[in-house]
């Protein structure tokens, strides 16, 4: 759904609109750039979280010609008498999300800088060596030793990519072999078909033709879905033809994707990490924490056929990152703790352990009053959702 107001570009070849999935209460806005000539479009902003639970909610887009800025105003109503107003700005002209993601990867540095960095690294290594020797000579300060199985989030890998990639965690995104964001090509039904086959292919099974019909066209007789299914598959084949490393296979009345190392999928990556979590080399799920923190699996798709996939994924993810919360809090990496708890509470809104470390971190970063406000919002949502009062007091949580 578009929000209020459209903004015409200076050359009058494009217009901008704020769009969001209106049927989802806790949703996200994004700024879209539409071509007037052919209707093509691209996303040109980061997502803006909004709550649109009441019909009075109001979202508007403006453009300030004096400052060359897009302005977005959001009015969220908690009830009929109380609302929160937020204002967001974006410098014009906005860049595509693909360009933005590409900019996050640093360019190669000149040789002189690399030499300087190398010498700096050498000095740091010498200092670290001296520290290690010193620490080895010191007596242990405590008889307790932490379990080696506790995940550590200190090391992160640059595992994401913007070419030949599909992202199912958080916001759904797809990039072709040139690094162009082609998410807009996936209509709701093509998107469902792509995800259905990809999820089952990740499990090594594939999905039968009849199951596809029953899942995506439940209101139609299976025998009557042949034409519409054929058209949808043709569109899907055309789209993925521009993505290297993924190929649609049909064998024994079963569809699956043949995937090689050229293709990247965040969900496929983490599924493999979970499978090998018990091996000696794969205990450290923190290596992939940036991927995990993208968000829940297919957050904006409430389809019931996804429930089992989401439940299984969230159960495995929580089992991997929850044990590290206490350690990160003790290491005073509070911003990382807040990122992890945000993800957990996004999947499990009433998780006591995540709430505890979120409030304790807020208390140390933003003060006790801010933490108490967040607690008050939590218990209101708890009472509204479950019909009972939250049993743990604020003081018991933070002290």
Which helices and strands, and how do they pair?
Layout: E1 7-8, E2 14-19, E3 26-35, E4 41-43, E5 48-51, E6 58-64, E7 69-77, E8 83-91, H1 97-103, H2 111-137, E9 165-167, E10 173-175, H3 188-202, E11 207-208, H4 209-216, H5 226-240, E12 246-251, E13 254-259, E14 264-265, H6 266-275, H7 289-292, H8 307-321, H9 324-330, H10 334-347, H11 352-366, H12 368-386, H13 394-398
Note down, in words, how this protein is organized.
The protein is an alpha+beta fold and 399 residues long. The chain folds into 3 domains: 7-94, no CATH class; 151-321, no CATH class; 330-399, no CATH class. Helix content is 40%, strand content 18%. The protein contains 13 helices and 14 strands. It has helices at 97-103, 111-137, 188-202, 209-216, 226-240, 266-275, 289-292, 307-321, 324-330, 334-347, 352-366, 368-386, 394-398, and strands spanning 7-8, 14-19, 26-35, 41-43, 48-51, 58-64, 69-77, 83-91, 165-167, 173-175, 207-208, 246-251, 254-259, 264-265. The strands form 4 sheets. Strands 1, 2, 3, 4 and 5 form a 5-stranded antiparallel beta sheet that branches.
Question: Can you describe this structure in just a few lines?
Answer:
With 399 residues, the chain is α+β, with helices and mostly antiparallel strands. It is built from 13 helices and 14 strands.
What's the number of domains? 3
Q: If you compute it from the alpha carbons, what radius of gyration comes out, rounded to the nearest whole angstrom?
A: 24 Å
Number of extended strands:
14
User: Order of helices and strands, N to C?
Assistant: EEEEEEEEHHEEHEHHEEEHHHHHHHH
Number of distinct helices: 13
């Amino acid at each position: 759904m578009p929000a209020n107001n459209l903004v015409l570009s200076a050359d009058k070849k494009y217009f901008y609109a704020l769009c969001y999935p209106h049927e989802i209460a806790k949703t996200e806005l994004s700024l879209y750039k539409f071509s007037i000539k052919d209707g093509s479009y691209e996303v040109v902003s980061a997502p803006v979280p909004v709550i649109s639970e009441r019909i009075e909610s109001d979202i508007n887009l403006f453009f300030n010609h004096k400052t060359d800025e897009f302005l977005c105003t959001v009015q969220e109503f908690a009830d009929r008498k109380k609302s929160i107003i937020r204002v967001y700005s974006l410098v014009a002209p906005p860049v595509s999300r693909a360009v933005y993601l590409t900019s996050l990867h640093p360019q190669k540095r000149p040789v002189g800088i690399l030499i300087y960095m190398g010498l700096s690294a050498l000095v740091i290594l010498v200092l670290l060596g001296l520290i290690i020797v010193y620490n080895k000579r010191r007596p242990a300060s405590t008889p307790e030793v932490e379990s080696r199985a506790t995940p550590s989030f200190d090391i992160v890998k640059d595992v994401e990519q913007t070419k030949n990639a599909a992202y199912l965690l958080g916001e759904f995104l797809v990039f072709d072999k040139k690094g162009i964001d082609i998410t807009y090509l996936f209509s709701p039904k093509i998107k469902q078909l792509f995800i259905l086959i990809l999820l089952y292919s990740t499990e090594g099974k594939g999905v039968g033709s009849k199951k596809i019909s029953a899942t995506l066209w439940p209101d139609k007789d299976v025998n009557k879905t042949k034409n519409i299914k054929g058209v949808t598959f043709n569109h899907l084949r055309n789209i993925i033809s521009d993505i290297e490393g993924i190929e649609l296979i049909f064998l024994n009345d079963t569809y699956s994707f043949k995937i090689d190392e050229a293709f990247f999928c965040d969900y496929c990556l983490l599924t493999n990490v979970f499978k090998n979590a018990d091996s000696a080399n794969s205990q450290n799920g923190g290596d992939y924490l940036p991927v995990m923190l993208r968000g829940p699996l297919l957050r904006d798709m409430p389809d019931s056929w996804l429930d089992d996939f989401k439940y299984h994924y969230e159960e495995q993810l929580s089992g991997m990152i929850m044990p590290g919360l206490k350690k990160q809090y003790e290491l005073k990496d509070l911003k990382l703790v807040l990122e992890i708890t945000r993800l957990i509470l996004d999947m499990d809104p009433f998780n006591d352990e995540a709430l505890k470390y979120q409030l304790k971190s807020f208390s140390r970063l933003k003060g006790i009053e801010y933490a108490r406000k967040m607690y008050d919002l939590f218990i209101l949502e708890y009472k509204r959702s479950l019909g009972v009062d939250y049993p743990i007091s604020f003081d018991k949580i933070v002290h």
